[in-house]
Amino acid sequence: MEIMSAINIFDIDEGKLGIWKFKESDDELLNSFRFSKNEKEEFQRLKHEKRKREYLAVRLLLNEMLGEKTEITYNASGRPELQDGLVNISISHSADLAVVVLSDKNIGVDTENIFRKTEQVANRFLSEQEQQNIEASENPDLLRIIYWCAKEAAFKFSKTPEIEFKTQIIVHPVNSTPNKGKFTGELQKTKPYTDLTFTYIFLENNVVVYCVEKEKIEK
User: Fold this and answer.
1) Distance CA 73, CA 164 (A)
2) Which of 45, 82, 107, 116 is close enough to 103 for a disulfide, judged by CB 3.0 to 4.6 Å?
3) Which of 185, 190, 186, 121 is nearest to 162 (CA)?
């Protein structure tokens, strides 16, 4: 597809990650998408142009990743699923970035512009220990965004409608490095708690974070 020259599709250990930095006009996106009856009805219910752009961009990216037309449905808790249900999907978007991750594993993904201001709301989603770790780093503003994305990704991974970001999603200390890296955390909604592995990737002014359950090492 000609307009999708800025797409990146990565084979990752967990499956496939698609990232599209889209600069196309509303008309270009609209003219490039082939609607099903259900999709047309969903699209017409969207009121804001931003949501319409995000809707189209995510689905165009998904179709490019799979090489065929595939619909996204939503379960009772509002989580996205593929119509055929063969693999798990998680989606995210920022102002000009669409992100889709596909995996046989349960997975969650989030993306944000690294210059988004989160300091004023930090108390709502960060524990005291996490805030101390962030403030002790060389770049607290950037690390705060990474923590925010990690908790959003963990929320999507959890498939739980109600979860407390501050106390039930724990992010362990992160040593941010250029380009990409990994860190760990824990989902403490119900026992037994779930150990998580997070991976982050920087793309221009955006960071993408996805998470899966940490592999257990048999003794």
Assistant:
1) 26
2) 107
3) 190
Residue type for position 96: D
SS3 208: strand
* DSSP 3-state of 54: helix
Distances (CA, A) of 128 to 83, 134, 174: 41, 10, 15
Q: 0.90 exceeded by the pTM?
A: yes
Q: What per-residue string of b and e applies to 79-115 under the rule 16 or more CB within 10 Å gives b? A: bbebeeeebbbbbbbbebbbbbbbbeebbbbbbbebe
pLDDT tens string 162-181: 899 999 999 999 987 778 99
Burial class of 165 by CB neighbour count within 10 A (0 to 12, 13 to 18, 19+): middle
Listed in sequence order, the residues at least 6 apart from 85 whose beta carbon sits closer than 8 Å to its beta carbon are none
Half-sphere exposure of 98 (CA within 13 A, CB side): 26
| 48-105 pLDDT per residue, tens | 999 999 999 999 999 999 999 999 999 888 899 998 888 999 999 988 899 999 999 9
